[in-house]
Amino acid sequence: MPHAIHRPTLLSALAFLGLALPWLNPFSPGPTPNVVPWLAALAGFAVMLPWLARARPAQLAALAASAWLLVALLSALLGLLQYFGATGALEPWVNSTNLGEAYANLRQRNQFATLTNIGLAALWWWLAQGPVTSATGDGAARSSFLGWRTLAPLAAAALLALGNAASSSRTGMVQLLLLTLLAGVWRTSGWRQPAVRRVLLVAVLAYAVGAVVLPLLLGQDLHASGMLARLQQGDPHCASRLTLWGNVLHLIAQRPVFGWGWGELDYAHFITLYPGRRFCDILDNAHNLPLHLAVELGLPLALALCGTGLWLTLRAKPWRELDATRQLAWSVLALILLHSLLEYPLWYGPFQVAFGLSLWLLWRHAAPLSPQSFKPFKPLTPVLSSLVAILIIVFVAYAAWDYQRVSQFYLSPKMRAEAYRAQPLAKIQSSWLFQDQLRFAELTTTPLTAANAAHLHQLALDLLHFSPEPRVIEKLIDSATLLGRLEEAQFYRLRYQAAFPDSRAGGTSGTLTRQN
Predict the structure, then answer these.
(1) 3-class SS of residue 113
(2) Residues whose CB falls within 8 Å of the CB of residue 243, separated by 6 or more in sequence, listed in order
(3) Would you say 336 and 346 are in contact if contact means Cβ atoms under 8 Å apart?
(4) Model pTM greater than 0.85?
(5) Res. 217: pLDDT tops 70
(6) With contact defined as beta carbons under 8 Å apart, do 243 and 274 qualify?
(7) Where would I find the Protein glycosylation ligase domain in this sequence (predicted)?
(8) DSSP track, 49-89
(9) What value, to the nearest 5°, has the Cα angle with vertex 356 and ends 355 and 361?
(10) Contact 64, 361 (CB under 8 A)
């Protein structure tokens, strides 16, 4: 049965914007580029909360599907414009890319591809809300095949698939195959409608055509660029995921019980001399969620977390779902989890919100777990949700202010706020949230002398756990040498040569090498 369409209210409009806009945010200033996008997603979630506390599952599904579909379509359009080098007039509101690259404002091709597939799942949800077309319909029904109600979803599916193809994301290709599989598994539900099948067929065909035609339209060789080239060439050995995962497995074997500690993978990777091939970059994520949990938290806890998630999934039997809303939630979870086996989308705000909303939809839309049992607390829900939203907004405002202060160190003097153009270290002594970024700036901008060698040495040792990059390591080696700690200097020099055989330290730049 189709869901009723409810008149939008101010709260629902704000919730829609709060869910949609973080996907379109083009700004990610240094020194830690993920901070501003994450704060934007957190602010968007806060704006959603008052409406979310009042919304019924059908309303939440409609709003989420609408927002995801809209931002996926806009991002696919922006991605195609980027691919053909036509976004110059849209800067700074649209990220710039090289010719033949597409990722909209998500800054990574795999994240962009995942969004296009989430949009496709949302499109299927909307199609499942309409009446099922009879196989023996009359002439009017048959003539509507060429009407806008049919052509608009087909055009949307084609645009999403072309955006996916333009990304050249192998993850995006596998996700499209996953959605095709899910549509086949859920064959006894609303997804069985002819409209859904037509959209699926158009999406697959558009993706296949786009993978071949898009590079040709740029005059590029199919064997040198595009999806077909990426499938044939793969990654360089030292940058491949197989090398990365091999290093992570070696690190897990070193500390299997308790792991290296949360956020310590980059330090563990630097400090370890591997017996075989080494991943040739700073490694701050295992690019596989189970492996990342195991290397940082230890095998027992990782197995417990992953095992619990798997048990809950098997218990829920998602392959038997008949309800389109729950199918949408399972689809989004499946897309993000598949992506999480190859990268780390759950480290980014919009994907965290999408993952959480999907879990919320599964819980709220389950009859045995109906929230009606919590009626005594219903009058307090709007008040509590508004209070939490206000607290989150206050935190976001403070964090943005604090980050803006610390970021002054990473700008040239003429680009800084006037108050910080001269001697910024004397004016910003501490930061509650971004102390590591502040200490990194101090280390990399302070000349090493005999008088400050001990202080900078300890600072460099601490910052190895934050960002073990050449500027930190070289300052550590030089300070240890100046202090007469020659064995320690040699210890770190060997690891520096192994991790960065061709690197030389430079001046402080606008961003850190560390990504998350």
Answers:
(1) helix
(2) 237, 277, 278, 279
(3) yes
(4) yes
(5) yes
(6) no
(7) 102-127
(8) HHHHHH--HHHHHHHHHHHHHHHHHHHHHHHHHHHTT--GG
(9) 100
(10) yes
Alpha-carbon distance of 155 to 127, in angstroms, equals 13
Residue pLDDT, tens place only, 71-89: 999 999 999 999 999 998 9
- Spatial neighbors of 462 by CB under 8 A, at least 6 apart, are 439
Tokens of 29: 């200033």
Per-residue pLDDT at 221: 78
* Tokens 């980059």, residue located: 266
Residue 240 tokens, joined: 């491949």
Q: Rounded to whole angstroms, how far apart are CA atoms 8 and 141?
A: 30
Domain borders along the chain are: 9-55+370-423, 62-133+141-234+318-344, 237-306, 434-516
Q: Which amino acid is at 391?
A: L
Mean local confidence (pLDDT), 21-28: 96
| Those residues with Cβ within 8 angstroms of residue 104's Cβ, 6 or more apart along the chain or in another chain | 24, 74, 75, 76, 78, 79, 82, 94, 95, 112, 115, 163
Only one residue has tokens 């993920």, namely 34
- 327/329 Cα distance (integer angstroms): 5
**Structure-token pair, residue 226:** 């595009």
> Residue written as tokens 């202060």?
405
Contacts of 312 (CB under 8 A, 6+ apart): none
Measured distance CA(160)–CA(203) in Å, rounded: 7
CA dihedral 268, 269, 272, 278 (to 10 degrees): 170
Kindly tell me the burial class for residue 431, based on how many C-beta atoms sit within 10 Å of its own C-beta (0-12, 13-18, 19 or more). middle
In the predicted structure, residue 508 carries a pLDDT above the cut 80: no
Q: How confident is the model at residue 428 (pLDDT cuts 50, 70, 90)?
A: confident
* Residue 439 tokens, joined: 């200490």
SS3 per-residue string spanning 344-361: CHHHCHHHHHHHHHHHHH
